[in-house]
Amino acid sequence: MMIVPPLWREAARFPADLARSVALLVLVFLAHVGQAVAIAWSMSAVLRGQAQDVLLALSMILGIAMLRLVLSLAQASAAARLGGRVRQAVRRRAMEAALVPERLHDTAARDGSMRASLGDGVDGIDAYVSKYVPAIVQLLLTCPIVVVVLLVTSPWAGLCVAAGVLFALVGPMAWKRMMARRGLDHWDSYEALSADLLESLRGMATLRTLGDVSGTRERLQHRSEALRRATERVMRVSLGETSVTDAAVQGGAVAAAAVAVTHAVTGQAPALEVYLILLLSSEAFRPVRELSRHWHAGFLGLTAVPGLERIGALSERRTAAPGHTTSDPVSDPEGGPGSDRAAEDRPADVLRVRGLSFRYPDAPRDVIHDLDLTARRGSLTAVVGASGAGKSTLFDLLLGFLTPRTGSIDLDGRPLRARDIAVVSQRPVLFAGTVRDNLAVAGATAEADLVEACRDAGILDEVQRFPRGFDTEVTEAGTSLSGGQRQRLALARALLARSPVLLVDEPTSALDADRSADVVRTLHRVARDRVVLMISHRTETLTGVPDVLSLDSEHLGSTS
Ligand SMILES: Nc1ncnc2c1ncn2[C@@H]1O[C@H](COP(=O)(O)OP(=O)(O)OP(=O)(O)O)[C@@H](O)[C@H]1O
After folding, report:
1. What separation in Å is there between the alpha carbon of 416 and the centre of ligand 1?
2. Distance between CA atoms of residues 291 and 47, nearest Å
3. How far apart, in whole angstroms, are the C-alpha atoms of residue 450 and residue 486?
4. I need a labelling partner for 417 at 20 to 30 A (CA). Which of 85, 348, 442, 448 fits?
5. Is 73 near ligand 1, meaning CB less than 6 Å away?
6. Which protein residue has the closest C-alpha to ligand 1 atom 29?
7. In this protein, which residues make up the domain named ABC transmembrane type-1 (predicted)?
8. 337-558 CATH
9. How far, in Å, is the centroid of ligand 1 from the Cα of 128?
10. Residues 481/509, Cβ–Cβ less than 8 Å
11. Which residue's alpha carbon is nearest to atom 6 within ligand 1?
């Protein structure tokens, strides 16, 4: 028996569904017992030559069989409902825990592991909760009743069955720890293979360029081999568990049958009792056999728990990456950076950063130290600095993805909120869907707005040349578009957000000189209506920018 407390808690979150599933399972079991009693009665009636009783017993058997069929169907449906609800709740919590800005800086997080936990891990929990938990409860409720009935009918037969049930339950516990260890090893191997595979697929271009495709294939084959070995080890344990359970069940049933035969031979008990002992002792082991049948379900659930706990799917509270908090000082309570669809058309005048300091966990010193910065509506503000100077960190602080150690970030004298900001990153993310879907992430969907934003971002002519215009499908991660097109589409999306602050990280890195000049002109124009802060590595983009701020190793100082 594998009792996993976190999974019992998941089941207990839906007490009505759990109770319905267990109650129906118990009723199905009682139907089996009723049928066994009716069979015993019919057989003894045959022996006694009482045709009327035989007919009555046979119709009872038939009636109970029909009832059992209906109950079994209802039970399967109740179990599926319970499993489905638990699965949905766990996935919801996993999404809440995963889609947080802190994850951006969680250096231990691997997307492939997350995918494995959300897919097979959650399925494992469903199986445990919908099949294994009700089977345990059923066993605990029903086995003692049948054993007591048997003890009353024939103490020896009752004792044989009780010993068999106990041995079937306690026997496999002898290697419980080994079972858990092998299960977790198996899960770790599976997670590692999933994560490596996903990263290899994403990095295929790099692997090809570096000529390491075959090396990666080999590494994945090693992983796959490790998973195969782990699976075999698990199967061996499973075989052991099944053998012990089977031996206990068969041993108990045979011993009880021997007692029944002895009664029959010595004439100690009437035929009805002998048949009852034979049939009930078999029924007493039914819950044990069912539990054993769901062993795999229980095991899947058991192994999925650590992965799901790691991503915070088994607790209501959001988990933060190590060293970070889930609080968001630059956004208001309703609007975390994840809920920041910009809603405000109202322009703001000045973004002011005062005394800002930040240090990465375990880093020896601040990456941003006592930083002051002012960016105003009306003209473009650029931030320059050597690689590693902290430009991206500054943006992450402004966006609320990181929590400053000290300092404040204000917009027109009030704390900056995540929803005040639209952002164009160096490697903008586009999602699978149409061009329109990708632009609609920012909120506005009116055709005229899309056209205007795309024109401003210098992408309109290309979108209009696409076979289906705004309804052209963009493949996952925008791979069907060029780097420059992705960047300009992201700029259009940011313009549509109409946020009072626009952060742009090197907006021209993927553009040719003409396009680059166009985009910079657009930014100058946009900066008349909102605060625009631009990270720049290219000096040509700084032409005409009145405020160029240089981020040196520890603080920001104006060079303009
Ligand atoms: N998650 C992290 N954990 C620890 N240190 C980090 C982390 N992210 C960045 N750093 C460190 O912080 C410093 C600033 O990094 P940041 O990415 O902000 O620089 P940057 O100016 O944007 O560089 P680039 O121009 O190359 O993009 C670097 O020394 C970097 O190694």
Report:
1. 23
2. 36
3. 15
4. 448
5. no
6. 388
7. 21-297
8. 3.40.50.300
9. 43
10. no
11. 360
Ligand 1 centroid to residue 340 C-alpha, Å? 24
In the prediction, which pLDDT does 17 show?
A: 94
Is residue 206 exposed (0-12), middle (13-18) or buried (19+ Cβ within 10 Å)? exposed
CA of 394 to the centre of ligand 1 (A): 10
Distance CA 106, CA 321 (A): 5
By alpha-carbon position, which residue is closest to atom 1 of ligand 1? 105
Q: Please give the angle made by the CA atoms of 211, 215 and 217, to the nearest 5 degrees.
A: 115
367 lines ligand 1 (CB under 6 A): yes
| Ligand 1 atom closest to the CA of 362, numbered from 1 | 4
- C-beta 526 within 6 A of ligand 1: no
Q: Looking at the whole model, is its pTM more than 0.90?
A: no
Where in the chain are the domains? Answer: 5-310, 337-558
- What is the value of ipTM here, to two decimals? 0.96
One-letter-per-residue 3-state SS of 186-227: HHHHHHHHHHHHHHHHHCHHHHHHCCCHHHHHHHHHHHHHHH
Å from CA of 324 to ligand 1 middle: 16
Q: What is the Å distance from ligand 1's center to 389 Cα?
A: 7
Per CATH, domain 5-310 is 1.20.1560.10: yes
- The angle, 0 to 180 degrees and rounded to 10, between the axes of the packed helices 447-457 and 483-496 is 130
Distance 393 CA to ligand 1 centre (A): 6
Q: Does the beta carbon of 425 sit less than 6 angstroms from any atom of ligand 1?
A: no
Residue minimizing CA distance to atom 3 of ligand 1: 360
Query: Residue 537 CA: which ligand 1 atom is closest?
Result: 25
| Sheet arrangement for strand 547-551 | 421-424, 501-505, 531-535, 381-384, 547-551, 556-558
Tell me, yes or no, if the two domains 5-310 and 337-558 fold the same way.
Answer: no
Nearest-CA residue for atom 28 of ligand 1: 388
Q: Per the structure block, which two tokens stand in for 141?
A: 């409720």
Q: Which of 286, 252, 292, 257 is nearest to 30 (CA)?
A: 286
d(CA 470, CA 492): 12
